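Sequence in, structure out. Go.
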Amino acid sequence: MRIGITGHMNLTPATVDLVRAALKSALAGIEPSELVGVSCLAEGADAIFAQAVLDSGGRLEALLPAPDYRDTRVSQAHLPTFDALVAQAHETRYIADASSMQVYAEANTFMIESVDVLYAVWDGQASSKTGGTADAVAMARTREVPVKIIWPQGSERS
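Output:
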């Protein structure tokens, strides 16, 4: 079972805990030896999901836009988590040679085309920018990839 993730980066601390518990619950029914989580490892939902996959005994596939992604797009605060997840990934794949907004969108497309289901840590609101969570959900639905919305009661964006 290949599961991809899309979701908000700007979750409140209380929401991080709610989402972590909801993802743990969602993954609990999946045989660990059959679980592959596909994540771009972005701050917020992507990283929470990646850690939940690893904690459940599944394998993590890091799908990164480009080799320069860490140095050009990952915040200083997120670097320790990002580096730890990359180190634990079963496989790390890159979409392009250099990061760009187009490559980030291509990473979403590639992920959606490679998974059996997409988990979306999403408040249901439209994206303010192209390539956001709402766009990934819409793309998955258009391509008939099942989407599981994860937005526990009480969740908020910061």
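Check: The domain at 2-149 is CATH 3.40.50.450 (Rossmann fold). The first helix runs from residue 13 to 28.
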